[in-house]
Specification:
Blueprint (H helix, E strand, L loop, with lengths): L1 H4 L5 H18 L3 H7 L10 E6 L2 E9 L2 E7 L5 E2 L4 H6 L1 H31 L2 E3 H9 L4 H5 L3 E6 L2 E8 L2 E3 L13 E4 L7 H13 L18 H6 L10 E3 H10 L17 E7 L4 E9 L14 E11 L4 E2 L7 H18 L17 H8 L5 H13 L9 E4 L2 E5 L4 E5 L5 E4 L3 E3 L7 H4 L10 H14 L7 H7 L1
Antiparallel strand pairs: 1-2, 2-3, 3-4, 5-9, 6-7, 6-9, 7-8, 10-13, 11-12, 12-13, 13-14, 15-16, 16-17, 17-18, 18-19
Helix pairs in contact: 10-11
Length: about 475
């Protein structure tokens, strides 16, 4: 049930599974988190790999990334073999099939467990060292993930954020730290540390070219603003955006939020909201939205295509009442605002390079323009910091620079300004808009070191920059017409 829960998208089914897990946890006298810990299969892996012997040949299954494995073959004398040996295909077809099935299961489990660890950043969960060591640190599959993350280790010497690197614990400077008899352990969050310490961790991952399974060292931090102190019980930081409703719905559910699609048959422009239950804090967070009621702005099922965003607020569970933002734990506030920033950053119509040209909603063209080339979000600010370090290593470095909100690229025909948030492009000297739609899969396959898994926006920016640096070689007429 625990494994199934991570793949379920329907909120009513997920709620049903949560109920069963809570019952099982109560019967076993453990928490739901511990039930989920125990449910993770190691698939016979040791330190992220497993070996098979077939007729003298050796197959080595190993994890190479989140959701990625490789199976390497070796001849009886130990030398590598490029493909599956013919004798194995002929005599051990069933075992070969099983190896491939195991590889696929490992890939799926890696992705789901990465997401589970990512969601733990909201919870601020503290584990006993003995349980952590058995179920995470020495687990054949989980160890591959957790040994790439920073952990708060509590011992007699105090609590310190440390990373297990090259067989030893190190701090943000890379210095070895001896930890005697750890007692408790929890995931480190950058909001818990001073800016200098966060910067040191980021430098370590960049200098050593270490890749984390999700954003941790480079995680965006959202602190309470003066405006939010003034409004006290709600935040307007992510208000007044226009989102594609169906994409927003998918993102919300993927991050553990509940949301019901709104249709033209609902009650006028009444507000709805996406919400997430936070039982560890006895709180619930809500992100308010309303439909964008415009002509033909709904699909064949009567569902609105777009929604407008409003306030974020937190409510206590018992009794149900709005709480002041200043009383919300810093880690939780930062994580909820990060989720909401993700919803806006991905689902906003301002990210769609074709939205304005294809008609969009005439009344909201100013919004598209202001978002497409406006101030950078926290995600985009982090992207800028990483790009400042990576740019000197790239072949476009002689013709590219970062200036304010843009990556500037000097092509042979024009000069281009790629926005670091929306990835949309303006051309100098007259700031003419250039519409380029990335090819499917392009963002995921760009060969570039990043200190964490998955920033497709950065890959899109660099793909566009590489192409525009050699704009005289572009053959696509939909682009060359715009350049002329």
């Amino acid at each position: 049930m625990s494994r199934l829960k991570l793949r379920i998208k329907q909120s009513n089914v997920a709620t049903l599974i949560d109920g069963y897990l809570e019952e099982a946890a109560k019967e076993e006298g453990v928490s739901v988190y511990e039930i989920e810990d125990m449910a993770v299969d190691d698939y016979g892996l040791v330190d992220g790999q497993r070996e098979y012997e077939l007729d003298g040949y050796k197959a080595q299954l190993l994890i190479v990334g989140v959701g990625k494995t490789e199976t390497r073959w070796f001849k009886p004398d130990g030398t590598p073999q490029k493909s599956v040996p013919a004798v194995v295909k002929e005599k051990h077809a069933a075992r070969l099939k099983k190896i491939k099935e195991t590889a696929k299961q490992v890939e799926v489990t890696l992705a789901t467990q990465r997401d589970r660890l990512d969601r733990m950043m909201k919870v601020d969960r503290v584990m006993e060292w003995s349980s952590f060591r058995r179920l995470y640190f020495e687990h054949g599959l989980m160890s591959w993930l957790v040994r790439r993350l920073i952990w708060n280790l509590e011992s007699a010497e105090g609590t310190r954020p440390l990373l297990f690197l090259d067989g030893q614990w190190v701090d943000g400077t890379g210095a070895s730290v001896v930890v005697t008899e750890p007692v408790r352990v929890s995931l480190w969050h950058p909001v818990q540390s001073k800016a200098e310490e966060v910067k040191a961790w980021r430098e370590l991952f960049l200098d050593r070219e270490l890749v984390q399974p999700f954003k941790q060292a480079f995680r965006e931090v959202y602190l309470l603003t003066d405006a939010e102190v003034t409004t006290r019980t709600y935040s307007n930081r992510m208000a007044a955006h226009i989102l594609r409703q169906h994409q927003f719905n998918s993102l919300a559910k993927a991050r553990g939020w509940k949301y019901a699609l709104r249709g033209a048959f609902d009650n006028g422009s009444d507000y709805g909201f996406a919400s997430i239950e936070l039982p560890e804090y006895q709180l619930r967070a809500e992100y308010w939205i309303s439909e964008v009621n415009a002509e033909n702005a709904y699909n064949d099922s009567g569902m609105w295509l777009y929604v407008a965003t409003d306030q974020v607020r937190f409510l206590s569970v018992q009794p149900v009442e709005v709480v002041e933002l200043a009383t919300v734990p810093a880690v939780l506030f930062s994580e909820i605002m990060r989720d909401v920033d993700l919803f806006v950053g991905v689902a906003s119509v301002g990210n769609d390079p074709t939205w304005s040209d294809s008609g969009g909603l005439p009344a909201y063209r100013d919004y598209w323009q202001s978002y497409s080339f406006g101030e950078l979000t926290e995600v985009a600010k982090t992207r800028k910091q990483i790009l400042e370090r990576l740019l000197p290593r790239l072949k476009i470095a002689p013709v590219a620079e970062i200036r304010d909100k843009f990556l500037i690229v000097k092509g042979k025909i024009r000069i281009y300004k790629i926005h670091l948030g929306s990835t949309n492009i303006l051309m100098e000297p007259n700031d003419q808009y250039l519409c380029i739609v990335p090819a499917r899969g392009q963002a995921e396959t760009y060969p570039l070191f990043l200190p964490f898994e998955g920033d497709s926006g950065l890959s899109v920016i660099l793909s566009k920059a590489m192409m525009l640096a050699e704009d005289d070689k572009i053959k696509d007429e939909t682009i060359t017409r715009q350049l002329r």
